[in-house]
Design goal:
Elements: H1 3-11, H2 47-55, E1 67-72, E2 75-81, E3 86-90, H3 91-97, H4 115-122, E4 128-132, E5 142-148, E6 154-163, E7 168-177, E8 183-194, E9 199-207, E10 211-222, E11 227-234, E12 240-243, E13 246-249, E14 255-264, E15 269-278, E16 284-293, E17 298-307, E18 313-322, E19 328-337, E20 343-351, H5 355-362, H6 368-380, H7 389-402
Length: 406
């Protein structure tokens, strides 16, 4: 890595993030890459791990997947692609193979953004490299799993995804902890580069332990006519999570869709959102989130649309249901226009379950609790757009699985 990058990271080691609760990194243990042995198949893992992975959309059988990546704690233990048109490998191996890859590292995200990016840069490289070659089209999605199996461990990953010109790739990422892990830290830096006429759909399901701290840092750069679709699902308890992925629509007619489903339970603090910078003429963005807070949870639902040039469009939508007096939803929709002839809008609403809906369902034999649960699941079950039918059905199945606890 360039010395200048490391110097910036060193200076940012104590820099607090702009948003979210500060975390003392020293409270978590670090582990060297290579502590866990490589495996030939996800089915080589213990059944308990496989069952947890299924809950976040990772299929141990891998039969209908275009490739699989597995990171256990700090070790990349599996990286397999089933097609020559998609490269999939550990980021460390990729950096050794391709000297040009270093130009992509810390290009979309500044290394000195905060202490979490700095910590990732200064540590041993972990994470995946995925590259769809020019014109490649995947039938089945690539799946990646970030798994923490040790208590109080700090997992740090830096992922690079490149969709070369005219390619199309679909990804499912599941992040989880072992059933015997309650407290840990996950830092994931992900940089996406989507070239001209390329498309990436990225569906992520989180299912962490109740005392796990999570700090993803994500940025996407889009060229002309490029498309990025992001689906995010979190409905299980977590200590805190703070994430604010940013997409830069630099190419003409580039397009971004963010869709988020958030369920706050127990004393979870969810500080989540998305930001799109519309810089290319004709570029567009749609950002939709559904949030439900219960118990003592707090949800900060953020969104920021910035139109920097003419003839861009964007819509931001945030709806929330508050199910307990001790919980909270704080919606922060932001629109920023700095050019003429742009079109941007937002709508936000936070409220309670309509009593007439509960009365209607209870009149048909449901208890109040059953009626409320059905209404919540219906509220969160928004249509996932922009995916092939098979992947949309798979995403719907993952969503239904996640909502069982709501």
């Amino acid at each position: 890595m360039l010395q200048d990058t490391l110097k910036k990271a060193e200076k940012a080691k104590k820099k607090k993030a702009a948003l979210g609760e500060d975390i003392e990194l020293e409270e978590f243990e670090t582990e060297k890459a290579g502590e866990h042995e490589e495996i030939e198949s996800l089915e080589d893992l213990p059944k308990t791990y496989q069952n947890t992975m299924k809950q976040v959309g990772v299929d141990p059988d891998s039969g209908e997947r275009g490739g699989s990546f597995m990171m256990m704690d700090q070790s990349g233990i599996l990286a397999q692609s089933t097609t020559e048109s998609i490269e999939l490998m550990n980021i460390k191996d990729a950096l050794e193979k391709y000297s040009w890859l270093s130009e992509y590292m810390w290009n979309a995200i500044a290394v000195d953004t905060d202490k979490y990016t700095a910590e990732t840069a200064l540590g041993e490289p972990g994470g995946f490299f995925i590259r769809a070659l020019p014109g490649a089209k995947t039938v089945f999605p690539i799946q990646a799993c970030m798994f923490i199996g040790d208590e109080r461990l700090a997992q740090k990953a830096h992922n690079i995804v490149i969709a070369e010109e005219g390619s199309e790739i679909h990804m499912i990422t599941g992040c989880a902890t072992g059933t015997d892990v309650s407290s840990a830290l996950h830092i994931g830096v992900s940089e996406f580069y989507i070239k001209k006429d390329a498309k990436i759909s990225y569906t992520m399901v989180h299912n962490w332990g109740e005392q796990v701290e999570v700090r993803p840092r994500t940025a996407i750069i889009l060229d002309d006519n490029a498309t990025y679709i992001n689906n995010y699902i979190l409905t299980s308890p977590v200590r805190t999570i703070q994430s604010y992925p940013t997409a830069y629509c630099r190419g003409e007619n580039s397009k971004v869709v963010f869709q988020s489903i958030l369920g706050g339970q127990k004393d979870s603090i969810l500080d989540l959102g998305s930001r799109v910078i519309l810089e290319g003429k004709g570029s567009s963005a749609e950002m939709v989130s559904r949030a439900v807070s219960k118990d003592q949870s707090q949800i900060f639902s953020r969104g920021h649309l910035a139109g920097k040039t003419q003839n861009v469009k964007g819509h931001l939508e945030c709806h929330g249901l508050v199910l307990s007096d001790d919980s909270m939803i704080y919606a922060v929709p932001e629109l920023e226009g700095s050019a003429t002839e742009l079109e941007m809008s937002h709508e936000a609403a936070v409220g309670k379950i309509a009593e007439e809906e509960v009365l209607y369902l209870t009149s048909r034999g449901l208890t109040e609790e059953e009626a409320a649960s059905m209404i919540v699941r219906g509220f969160l079950s928004m249509d996932i757009t922009g995916l092939p039918p098979e992947l949309a059905a798979e995403t719907k199945r993952m969503l239904d699985q996640s909502l069982k606890g709501m």
